[in-house]
């Protein structure tokens, strides 16, 4: 659980008693590859910290095509935060791309942490801002670049990830066909 504690301590000062309290409100959740952390049509059950593995966020567009819009690797938070907080039905999926292990917090546990540790809401807000900035930083360059550049940027932001997840999901994330991705990968080597 040390990676989790180190992560949250980047965003605020907590003493051992407070970090022990936070850990006492968590539990470990393991998912097999392709299982869902959260599903469209259901209320998100957890906020999670990914200890091992990779997850992807995806949805189905109005043509019924599956679209991958982000990946999250180890030592990062994973949640459909807005819908988790409001306890409303999600419109996207969070799926394990590899076998995963999370430290998870139920809504009651998350609220209890916020109600007990005075500085937690500030820490939580800084964590959310950090996650949002990372997502924007990773997605923004993809909008205006050609496919080969998008692939290169993807490899910079997610080194080695292309070998851990299905190429169809990488292609979807990059907004290209799997055939185009294969051609780009052959030419880049």
UniProtKB/TrEMBL annotation:
Residues 30-113 form the Cyclic nucleotide-binding domain. This is Crp/Fnr family transcriptional regulator. Pfam families: cNMP_binding. InterPro entries: cNMP-bd_dom (IPR000595), cNMP-bd_dom_sf (IPR018490), RmlC-like_jellyroll (IPR014710). It comes from Mucilaginibacter myungsuensis.
């Amino acid at each position: 659980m040390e990676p989790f504690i180190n992560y949250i301590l980047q965003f605020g000062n907590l003493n051992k008693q407070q970090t022990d309290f936070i850990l006492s409100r968590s539990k470990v959740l393991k998912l097999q590859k392709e299982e869902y952390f959260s599903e469209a049509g259901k209320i998100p059950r957890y906020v999670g910290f990914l200890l091992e593995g990779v997850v992807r966020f995806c949805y189905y567009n109005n043509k019924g095509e599956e679209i991958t819009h982000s990946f999250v690797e180890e030592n990062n938070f994973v949640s459909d935060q807005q819908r988790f907080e409001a306890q409303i039905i999600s419109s996207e999926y969070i799926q394990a791309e590899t076998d995963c292990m999370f430290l998870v917090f139920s809504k009651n546990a998350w609220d209890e942490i916020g109600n007990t540790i005075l500085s937690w809401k500030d820490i939580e807000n800084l964590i959310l801002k950090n996650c949002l900035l990372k997502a924007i930083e990773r997605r923004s360059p993809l909008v205006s670049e050609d496919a080969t550049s998008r692939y290169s940027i993807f490899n910079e932001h997610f080194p080695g990830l292309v070998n851990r997840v299905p190429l169809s999901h990488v292609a979807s994330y990059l907004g290209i066909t799997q055939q185009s991705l294969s051609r780009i990968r052959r030419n880049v080597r």
